[in-house]
Design goal:
Methylamine Dehydrogenase, Chain H; 7 helices; disordered N terminus; disordered C terminus; about 35% strand; five-stranded mixed sheet
Length: about 900
């Protein structure tokens, strides 16, 4: 699991020089030293599972990074424009110090990494502020916990308060004094609260004063400071509210406010502005011509207004038709910028990126060839042709005013909704991504360069959600986009067929959730389920469908309304309600079906869908109308199931998770010691250990070793703070796979130790865990090895992982011996003698003996050790008078045909070598 950079280099070196499977190469200099460096060390630990796992668990990220995540703000050190900060909504803040060539996360371990704004203090550029809680107001954004400040360029962060603001849209720093900071707080997205408005500090964040407040439903969506006078600020107030089934964008509280005394007093600006209800408003102040201000206003008669007298009077510069073309979803966009050197050139960001050179009368598109849905733009004040754009696909950089763009493809910020896997060797992982379609990629590329963008395969477009490969024919994949845009695709040639169930003309259209569930039956790979307001079953791989349930929702007509309003009506599908959101079939007994809905129902059928019982009223302590996020039917008992609910859409951020053992007649909460703040997306039961459970929450992943009586955080050494939307346990390889909404896919290799970890294990002086089968893969470089590959995910360490636990430190020369079927020791590895959990890797190579049985000095011209042949081996560790043993099976690389006679000859030749044979040079 964890290893030093030095040991990584040694392992990679061994992989590089490893010979062909069938032939032994010669020995390299100091090969025994290299073997010893394969051992992994950890510090001594307290005897608690949490402390053990904190120091042992290391995840590996496999991407994808070919598409980035929703980038909502960008700021640059103007005196050093090669230093860039990018706020990527669900994944935190990323920094580049080389003009965007490479990036690294700087805000990724805090309590929450949902970000709405990042701002550099230009007078003191090591001071950087982050406002948490994304402010795009879409259905999938998550919450923040106030503002953070760094005084060392993002190396360390301190929370400076305002935690209950939850969503922050802008931070403005006084140009002359970095201690004077203004914060625009949107407030709670899903409910009313008074901690919204404009806040100010004059002591660098030690204390705050709320200087503008409208009401509990109205936040501030934009805030700009006049470039010529830091006492003049303009604030855009925005009345808004999300509900599970609609978005309210606009109300009496919306409007534009101005202060000329640093926020002591404010006045509402009206002269020349449209009368009546406003929605979301974007603001921009000219840097080249003081007093010029623009307002992009959602309204029944929307448009762009310009003031030339510091907002005292306004004139329309853009008609409503043009506005609707350049700002088509105001609640999600409404971003406007002014060229720093030309007060008449403005940019508007929405689905497209648009520029106008005549104050907004006419626009032309700039975003050709890059991902749509734009949220942020930085314009170089010394070179307006240098643009940095933030969109739903990541970051793009232009040096010719937007004619051509350089995409950033080395940030692992994919927003995963759901996971899938197949049974190929190595297995492949599949995912659906927010606004970036469905993809598949290897868990192990067998490429020494790692898992690269080129190894990921695009499967389907739209907003990607579920991806389910056929477990028997992995080239057949079922996947869907928003509102169950269901497709069956053959990956061998790319042919795809839409198989979405459609209502007959005599019935109302089916309602499918934005994130509509699909499932392949665990009993028959041709039986497919999908769900809308009904549950549908196909027994022929999706070519025909049968409705096997009544409407399982509340079918509340008051919640089946236009998605967005009251000003701009929208029906994008994200607010379709009264739908089934979770389905599960018992792996124990066919026909036991579970369905959970977004409006608070939980239904079970024990006869394949003929009859249904709503059991939600049996669940104690569950708020009414809670959204069912996941159902996990047990692998062990037909009547046992686990259910998770997500009530954050009702401004309730607590976890709700339950277990039944009697088909839903009775339930018990298994929330136990899970954090009280952080709703649950998914629960999984381990397929071979019914006491081992996993839950993915909005802020991480947890495991229970005792069936929900207590929970352990699995963040380990390197997992960032991130929402875990899906969890998969590969049943063959026993890997734990998580899909995160903001940092892509992570794998915890070989979790066999978790299935065995318990009180007896921790009471043992020494414990050797069962060893997973090792695959003898041949790894090679498959492309250019010079220069940068962009993103490179980690492959698993090649070989056999030997995992063990020590209760106390040991002393003396203790070895891990690997024995062949003849009982002969073929290799010895050092045992880590520090108390704790350890994993030592054997690279499946060994040092052959000389033909005369003697040991000879290794010389520099020798090139490699020998690979062992596939077969059964024994791992033996002797400590004092006790010997601990475990079987180990080495499996062949499935890409090569192994002939039995050749294996025997290889084994015989590999045991000894002639010391007089000349070395290769």
């Amino acid at each position: 699991m964890r290893f030093s950079p030095e040991s990584i280099n040694k392992v990679d070196f061994i992989h590089f020089i490893s010979g062909n499977f069938y032939f032994c190469h010669r020995l390299i200099l100091l090969i025994i030293l290299i073997i010893s460096l394969l051992s992994i060390s950890y510090p001594q630990f307290p005897e608690k599972p949490q402390d053990l796992l904190d120091k042992f668990i290391t995840w590996r990220n496999i991407g994808p990074a070919v598409m980035g995540g929703r980038t909502v703000d960008i700021d640059v050190v103007e005196r050093q424009p090669w230093i860039i900060y990018a706020a990527v909504g669900p994944s935190g803040v990323w920094k580049s110090e080389n003009n965007g060539i490479s990036w690294y996360p700087v805000f990724f371990k805090e309590t929450t990494v949902s970000v709405g704004d990042v701002t550099v203090a230009q007078s003191s550029p090591n001071i950087v502020w982050v406002g948490t809680g994304e402010a795009t107001a879409r259905n999938s954004v998550t919450v923040g916990d106030g503002v953070y400040k760094s005084t060392d360029g993002g190396k360390t962060w301190t929370n400076m308060g305002l935690k209950e603001t939850r969503h922050i849209s802008r931070i403005v720093i006084s140009r002359g004094d970095p201690n004077v900071v203004y914060v625009a707080a949107m407030g709670h997205l899903w409910g009313p609260n008074s901690e919204r408005g404009v806040y100010k500090t004059i002591d660098g964040g030690k204390t705050w004063t709320k200087i503008l407040y409208i009401n509990e439903n109205t936040g501030i969506c934009d805030l700009v400071m006049d470039p010529s006078d830091s006492q003049i600020l303009y604030a855009a107030a925005y009345e808004h509210r999300r509900r599970p089934y609609k978005m309210v964008s606009g109300g009496p509280g919306s409007g534009i406010y101005k202060t000329t005394d640093g926020g002591l007093t404010w006045k509402k600006l009206t002269k020349g502005l449209p009368e009546g209800v406003m929605g979301r408003i974007g603001l921009a102040a000219s840097r080249s011509k003081p007093g010029v201000v623009y307002a992009l206003i959602e309204h029944q008669n929307p448009g762009i207004w310009r003031s030339e007298d510091f907002g005292e009077t306004w004139k329309r510069t853009c008609d409503s038709k043009t506005y609707k073309n350049v700002n088509n979803r105001p609640f999600y966009y409404s971003q406007i910028y002014v060229d720093p050197n030309d007060d008449k050139t403005i940019y508007v960001l929405s689905t497209g990126l648009y520029v106008s050179n005549d104050m907004g009368q006419k626009f032309r598109g700039l975003g050709g060839g890059i991902h749509p849905d734009h949220h942020a733009l930085w314009i170089d004040p010394t070179n307006p042709l240098h643009l940095i754009d933030g969109n739903d696909g990541g970051i793009d950089i232009s040096y010719d005013g937007g004619k051509t763009w350089l995409p950033v493809t080395n940030i692992d910020a994919a927003e995963v909704y759901q996971l899938g896997y197949d049974f190929s060797v190595p297995y492949r992982v599949y995912c659906g991504l927010q606004d970036n379609g469905c993809w598949g990629g290897p868990s192990n590329s067998l490429d020494s360069r790692g898992i690269l963008n080129e190894h990921w395969e695009f499967i389907s477009g739209g907003d990607g959600f579920f991806v389910r490969p056929d477990p028997k024919n992995s080239f057949i994949v079922y996947c869907n986009s928003q509102n169950n845009g269901l497709t069956r695709k053959d990956l061998r040639h790319g042919q795809a067929k839409s198989i979405r169930p459609e209502a007959p003309l005599s019935e109302p259209p089916y309602r499918f959730n934005w994130n509509a569930p699909i499932m392949i039956s665990p009993h028959d790979n041709q039986t497919i389920y999908c769900a809308g307001n009904f549950l549908f079953q196909s027994k022929d791989g999706g070519y025909s469908w049968e409705k096997i349930s009544p409407d399982l929702t509340t079918n509340d007509k008051t919640k089946q309304v236009d998605g967005v309003g009251p000003i701009t009506v929208e029906n994008s599908g994200a607010e379709v309600h009264c739908t089934i959101t979770a389905i599960s079939e018992s792996p124990v007994k066919p026909g036991i079906l579970w369905c959970g809905t977004d409006d608070g129902n939980l239904q079970v059928s024990q006869d394949g869908g003929k009859t249904w019982v709503n059991v939600v009223k049996n669940i104690p302590g569950l708020p009414k109308e809670s959204w069912c996020s996941r159902i996990e039917a047990s692998h062990f008992e037909a009547g046992t199931a686990y259910v998770a609910f997500d009530n954050h859409r009702n401004d309730d951020y607590a976890p709700y998770i339950y277990k039944t053992s009697d088909f839903g007649k009775t339930w018990k909460s298994i929330r136990a010691n899970l954090p009280s703040f952080g709703w649950i997306h998914v629960i999984r039961e381990h397929p071979v250990n019914k006491n081992l459970l996993f839950v993915g929450t909005e802020f991480g992943i947890y495991a229970s070793l005792d069936c929900g009586l207590s929970w352990i955080n699995l963040k380990g050494i390197n997992l960032p703070t991130v929402a875990v939307h899906d969890i998969a346990i590969h049943p063959r390889d026993n890997d734990l796979i998580i899909g995160t909404h903001g940092r892509g896919i992570w794998i915890l290799d070989d979790i066999g130790f978790l299935t065995e970890l318990g009180p007896d294990t921790l009471d043992s002086d020494f414990y050797l865990f069962k060893i997973r089968n090792a695959q003898s893969f041949q790894v090679a470089s498959r492309g250019e090895t010079f220069g940068s590959f962009g993103f490179s995910g980690k492959n698993p360490i090649n070989g056999a992982g030997i995992t063990y636990f020590l209760k106390k430190d040991l002393s003396g020369d203790i070895r891990i011996k690997i024995l062949d079927q003849a009982g002969e020791t073929i290799v010895e590895l050092p045992l880590d003698k520090k108390a704790g959990l350890h994993r030592t890797y054997w690279n499946l190579q060994f040092v052959p003996k000389a033909s005369d049985g003697k040991k000879y000095l290794v010389i520099p011209t020798m090139t490699a050790m020998c690979n062992v042949i596939p077969g059964d081996y024994l791992v033996s560790i002797k400590i004092g008078d006790k010997e601990y043993q475990s079987n180990l099976r080495v499996l062949p690389d499935p890409r090569f045909e192994l002939l039995p006679e050749a294996q025997k000859k290889t084994a015989s030749a590999g045991r000894r070598f002639d010391q007089n044979q000349p070395s290769l040079r």
